[in-house]
What does this fold into?
Amino acid sequence: MARLALILAYDGSVFQGWQTQPTGRGVQDHLEQALAAIAGHPVATICAGRTDAGVHALRQVVHFDSRAVRPGSAWVRGVNAHLPPQVAVREAREVDEAFHARYGASLRRYRYLIHRSPVRHPLLAGRAGWIFRPIDTDRLRASASTLVGEHDFSAFRSSECQAASPVRRIDTIEIAEHGPLLLMSFVGNAFLHHMIRNIVGTLLMAADGRRPVEWVGEVLASRDRRLAAPTFAPDGLYLDGARYDSRFGVDAWGPDEGLDGMLAALR
It folds into this structure.
């Protein structure tokens, strides 16, 4: 058996999340069917981050085992021929059997794209979160800095979260502006269910003046989900890579041109 790693991109708006579903509408369902068609046997996949319904991926990392001997192109173009247009394998390579897409990831990067406008834009539907209130980016950065570091993130954790511990580490939260578009980038060791969407909603309430900047730290310290903002829309959330030990040769932490190119096209 050989172990293979894939880097996958998908438009999450048409799927019920990454994980396999009884309806067959999870990204995992489509990918495993496509892989089985090429491998000639059933295939089970493991991913770096189990994205929710409506959440996208620029660089989702997946590994699977197969006894099939195929050229590298078969695991890319061949698999893509069996996938819907909203999901595609971008890269594939054989890796050491010790590689694990989920447990081997030391860092994960997510980005949230926000459209700031009094009126929503139909061409951004499903691609960016929308807020009609003016955003003060200085307040946004100040409140975001409160969350950097290792904390108990219970206040930003979904009630359906199955993680054994609410403690996670956020290394950086970066904010960039592109005209009416605001891009928030989160890098950390791991994230709880709905954690980023709950954080985004809370940060925006401080950034638009509905709450003081200090409120974000108070919510974090409370460990009480009821005190944070409602879960923000999945539309603008993108999984953009995971970092692994260099010995595996899985380059899933590319430069920023993925979203930069998308943002340039939207302006």
